[in-house]
Automatic annotation (TrEMBL), chain A:
The protein, known as: FAD-binding protein
Domain Glucose-methanol-choline oxidoreductase C-terminal as annotated: residue spans: 379-514
Coiled-coil annotated residue ranges, if any: none
Sequence similarity: Belongs to the GMC oxidoreductase family.
Keywords: FAD, Flavoprotein, Oxidoreductase
Domain Glucose-methanol-choline oxidoreductase N-terminal: 78-295
SUPFAM superfamilies, per the entry: FAD/NAD(P)-binding domain
Pfam families tied to this protein: GMC_oxred_C, GMC_oxred_N
From TrEMBL, chain B:
Full protein name: Twin-arginine translocation pathway signal
InterPro entries per UniProt: TAT_signal
Entry-linked PROSITE patterns: TAT
Organism encoding this protein: Candidatus Accumulibacter contiguus
């Protein structure tokens, strides 16, 4: 298997592993980009294509197909934030987020959805974002879908996803086929540990190599510490090199100066960098309205083998329960499936001792469904808040309130009904006191009586959004529709922290499209060329 | 047994005091597991992994030791703030008064039975104190994470491991 990253490095790409720096350094570029995920990758590609000298700053390591061994023990500590065990401050929600070159796009499950039209409508009404609509954004989504090979997955779904097809059919719940950003996918099922066959068209394999081929500089193991600004302009970014373990600072510092600064460190990292820097925030909006698509899970034992570790992890979805009420009514939810690997499943499965071991022995017959709750639209769903811990690193508070638990109960019921309709012999929510149920009637009664509260009911998240929300003015947003900061003229935000609500869909394509637009506008401005004709 | 509200408050205060004491003990940051921590974690693994561990005494002892090694590796991969919290938890559990008062385990860890440790785990899992619930959650995730990360454990659950060949 050819490793295009190793080939690129051999051809002379400018990659600096900051953990190896013998001393601190200062450099100047046209644009500094913090983060190499969906936002940073697209930005680096478009700005370098306009002839601008860009530098990318990544806290994680550079890893590629040669390193991707499809083993959880290696992948989680190497490729994820906090070894895949990042949590909210109260530890009630476990958050999966990438931390490596390519960010979460290196480890996501490839699900690709455009931002739904009703979400743009809500943003127009509530945040005055009249420039953004499904129509005005359609060309940008089309560009990125073309570039990243986003298309419907026409291989039959694996048995884990097939449960959603069969159960949905029995109950007249419509399901759809998920579009995936893959080229020549081998259908292995290990997307979450880094694609070993270079099929996933992540930032690691597309936009970042394109930028590096044009002479861009990539720093890894370098933590963006603080923006320096004078008046209304950012002058420099101070960074701290990490040791090879990615945890301890090495003591070496790097200062990067530039004309413009793009922050794309994800919706926990970006607000935290701005908070550490003390950027103007007179309306106290920074880090607020952070959304997670809180996810609740239902496991089932099926009569046949499911082998939920094998095959494209997410290929079928249902939006049926997003459309039962107005968007700002009781929280809707999207149903999808997670892949199951031994560590991910055993740590999510409740209980211990013989009860846990008994379920694990049936691992190959387990199906799991997940419901991601669309937070941020209901007036009482205001999300969480990123703040700084005593070590200056981000902490996320996300209170799980009544509107979340009300939706959780509906979601657990809906998933159990689908699983029994598909032939499940046993179903249990991921919940500490759920005994598991042998029939839909039993499950309906049991789930209706379950206590729903933090720690008792498992809640996880793989989609962090908001915290630097867009709006038409500084009273209700941190940046404008182009991602430009309201107070610092040469500062842009280009990642999921832009979204003023959650999305109700897996976020990668929403980030790609919006950032393609905003990076193109920025490239025109910085290079003195006309703006792109697409609005 | 449902402990009284008064008991909860007493336990909570004792727990906070002990935690702050251990926070001071562990202020130096991450370090290797001590022998007493290994004994404590071994006892937890024996209960947490009952049903997955082999019955043979010697094999079981070896598997538990490997799992404790795995826990140490996992902890070293966490951010420093989380390492400190875990260090405080471990430091607390090896103190006899805390083991007795918070975990309800009267004997030293190496003498405690699977059933006794299981009762302790269940009491924290079902506790009304968030501190103890989250501590249970951390012990649960660390133990199962360390156990099922090892390919030797996959046969028992029918997982064939990642596909091989053609790479």
């Amino acid at each position: 298997m050819l490793d295009p990253i190793k080939t690129g490095l051999a051809s002379g790409w400018k990659h600096i592993d900051a953990s190896t720096l013998p001393r601190g350094q200062t450099h100047e570029f046209d644009v500094v980009i913090v983060g190499t995920g969906a936002g940073g990758g697209v930005t680096a590609d478009i700005l370098s294509d306009a002839g601008l000298r860009v530098v990318l700053v990544e806290e994680g390591p550079l890893r590629s197909s040669t390193d991707f061994k499809m083993r959880e023990a290696d992948a989680y500590p190497e490729l994820y934030q906090e070894s895949a065990s990042r949590k909210t401050a109260d530890k009630a929600i476990n958050i999966l987020q990438g931390r490596c070159v390519g960010g979460s796009t290196t480890v996501n499950w490839t699900s690709s959805f455009r931002t739904p039209p009703e979400v743009f409508d809500f943003w127009q009404r509530q945040f005055g974002l009249r420039q953004l609509s499904a129509h005005s954004m359609s060309s940008w989504f089309a560009v990125m879908e073309h570039k990243l090979w986003v298309r419907p997955w026409d291989t039959p779904p694996n048995p884990n996803n097939q449960v959603l097809v069969v159960g949905g059919e029995k109950l007249a719940i419509p399901v759809g086929v998920i579009k995936r950003n893959v080229k020549g996918c081998w259908n292995l099922g290990y997307c979450g540990m880094g694609c070993p066959t270079n099929a996933k068209q992540s930032m690691l394999l597309t936009t970042i190599p394109a930028a590096l081929n044009r002479g861009a500089t990539l720093y890894t193991r370098l933590r963006a510490e603080r923006l320096r600004f004078n008046g209304s302009r950012v002058s420099a970014l101070d960074c701290m090199a990490l040791q090879p373990d990615g945890i301890h600072p090495s003591g070496k510092r790097v200062q990067l100066r530039a004309r413009h600064f793009v922050i794309a460190g994800g919706a926990i990292g970006s607000p935290a960098l701005l908070l550490r820097s003390g950027v103007p925030d007179p309306f106290r909006l920074l880090g607020k309205r952070t959304f997670l698509h809180p996810v609740v899970i239902s496991s089932a034992l099926m009569p046949e083998r499911v082998d939920a570790y094998a095959g494209a992890p997410q290929s079928i979805y249902s939006d049926h329960f997003l459309h039962q009420a107005p968007i700002d009514g009781p929280l809707g939810f999207k149903i999808e499936t997670p892949p199951l690997h031994p560590v991910l499943f055993s740590t999510t499965l409740q209980g211990f001792g013989e009860a846990h071991a008994r379920l694990m022995r049936e691992f190959t017959q387990v199906n799991a469904l997940l419901a991601l709750l669309r937070d941020g639209f209901h007036p009482e769903s205001r999300g969480g808040q990123v703040r700084l811990g005593s070590d200056g690193l981000p902490v996320l508070d996300y209170p799980l309130g009544d509107v979340i638990w009300e939706a959780t109960r509906r979601a657990l019921l809906a998933m159990a009904e689908i699983q029994f309709a598909a032939g499940a012999r046993w179903v249990s929510p991921a919940h500490e006191t759920a005994p598991g149920y042998a029939s839909w009637a039993e499950a309906r009664k049991g789930i209706n009586e379950l206590p729903l509260k933090p720690f008792v009911c498992r809640v996880v998240s793989a989609h962090v959004m908001g915290g630097c929300g867009m709006a038409d003015g500084p009273q209700r947003g941190v940046v404008d529709h182009r991602g430009r900061h309201f107070w610092l003229a040469n500062l842009s935000i280009h990642d999921g922290s832009l979204f003023p609500t959650s999305l109700g869909v897996n976020p990668q394509l929403s980030i790609y499209g919006l950032v393609a637009r905003n990076a193109s506008l920025l490239a025109a401005e910085l290079s003195g060329r006309p703006s792109p004709l697409i609005p | 047994m449902i402990p009284s509200r008064r008991q909860f408050i007493k336990t909570g205060i004792a727990g906070s005091l002990l935690l702050s004491f251990c926070g001071w003990l562990n202020a130096a940051g991450a370090r290797r597991l001590s022998n007493s921590e290994r004994e404590m974690l071994g006892a937890l693994c024996n209960a947490m992994l009952e049903g997955a561990l082999p019955r043979d005494h010697e094999q079981r002892r070896q598997q538990v030791a490997l799992t404790v090694d795995g826990i140490a590796v996992e902890v070293a991969g966490l951010p420093l703030a989380a390492q400190k919290e875990i260090g405080e938890l471990f430091g607390l559990l090896v103190l006899a008064p805390a083991r007795f008062m918070l975990a309800g385990v009267g004997k030293p860890w190496r003498e405690a039975s699977v059933a006794e440790v299981g009762e302790f785990l269940q009491s924290w899992r079902a506790s009304r104190l968030n501190l103890l619930q989250t501590a249970y959650g951390a012990l649960h995730d660390l133990t199962f994470g360390a156990w099922y990360a090892r390919p030797e454990t996959w046969d028992a659950i029918g997982y064939p491991g990642p596909p091989k060949g053609y790479f």
